[in-house]
Amino acid sequence: MTSTWLQSLSQVESMIPLLGKLGREKSIKVQLAGNTLMADSVTGLMATFDQHPELDLGQVYGVLEELYASELAQTCVELEDLLAQADLTSMLAAQPSDGSEVPVVLYGFGRIGRLLARRMCALGHTTPGMKLAAIVVRNAGANDLAKRASLLKYDSVHGAYDGIVKVDEANQVLMINGNAVQIIYASDPAEVDYSAYNIEKALLVDNTGRWRDHDGLSVHLNRPGIERVVLTAPGKSMKNVVFGVNDSDLTAEDQIVSAASCTTNAITPILSVLEEKFGIESGHVETVHAYTNDQNLIDNIHKGDRRGRAAGMNMVMTETGAAKAVSKAIPSLEGKLSGSAIRVPVINVSIAVLSLNLKAGTSVDEINALLKAASNSAELAGQIGFSEEADAVSSDFIGSQQAGILDSLSTKVRGNQATLYVWYDNEYGYSCQVVRLMEKLALGQFSKAQLLEDQAA
């Protein structure tokens, strides 16, 4: 090892306890170019800083110390912005911070619900402005709580959870890394009084997909203790939000919003960059998608016909609304995209094939350079990933935090016709997008124009 490497390693090691205290004691999340600086791994931090050799790690440590000494709490900060400040102390003192936390209720605890819990309660990770308070499920019978804990702890796709999960049967509580999470048993949202569990002004995340419209989800909103609802599926008669693209459309009045679908989140950020640079005349989205829990493992009756055939043995033609849903985030693409899907026998990670007719001619190098720059930007680093690996396969992207990752070596261009291949972890990558949306809602980070209107009212 070189002395420079050892010096960098020593500096990064010194940041771990400081980042830990910022998260534990003040609920401050620190980001660098849109990527969270986690307090759980020296290797992870070294890899992050390796992408930014221009940074002085000694200066970074000093900024983190000033941040910890400030009165700031319950917020997310961009490290590059802090480093650029000549008078950091005054800037931090001027930041609004009331230190409050919004309780979060997960309604449903299936694939997405459990990954949201993992992400929110991950060691070294901070979700400013909110805290997991309760999970609502149907009672599945004897030892239900122990089974829920086991499914959270052990996962066939994502591996064992790097944390401590304990069961408090007497109080019907799961202890997740020291955080007490109330388990509420109910078969219908109208049965639950959240205020009875001292939960007030909560953000409820519906992971069941049972209700997709405003009226259905309003049942949650009308329950005592609930202030806002997020749907983890495409929604009708509500804003469908792809974080990083149209989250600026959110206002304080939006009490029910959709986080759209995993496929919509995967392709929309990339499409937004291409639309802004070249313009898109038309296109088709084909998603080759991992099979999901709504398919049959063996041939049987299913309301979706082909989805009734054995998921582990067949490629199954089906439909996707992702192409049409893109226009809810990018209105200029209304009516320009078609879409379909093929479910395939892999348990996780999908790939979307974007066949686009652009308004201007381009090249492989230009498109790849454009999207690589976007993947390194603070605005879209969490949404767009960039792969240059010659031997990349689907399993390499399990656990990816980005909404979608461009397979740059597969990009094809002929004049104004472009074909792009976008990998996405349709479980965890999507869950990270949902958590980003939840953080924004919890912190009340609405547009400046909306805030001015609220202040004037």
Automatic annotation (TrEMBL):
The keyword Endoplasmic reticulum does not apply. Signal peptide: none annotated. InterPro entries: GlycerAld/Erythrose_P_DH, GlycerAld_3-P_DH_AS, GlycerAld_3-P_DH_cat, GlycerAld_3-P_DH_NAD(P)-bd, Glyceraldehyde-3-P_DH_1, NAD(P)-bd_dom_sf. The keyword Oxidoreductase applies. Coiled coil: none annotated. It comes from the Bacteria. Residues 102-262 form the Glyceraldehyde 3-phosphate dehydrogenase NAD(P) binding domain. One of its GO terms (biological process) is glucose metabolic process. Keywords: Oxidoreductase. GO terms for molecular function: NAD binding; NADP binding; oxidoreductase activity, acting on the aldehyde or oxo group of donors, NAD or NADP as acceptor. Its EC number is 1.2.1.-. Belongs to the glyceraldehyde-3-phosphate dehydrogenase family. This is Glyceraldehyde-3-phosphate dehydrogenase.
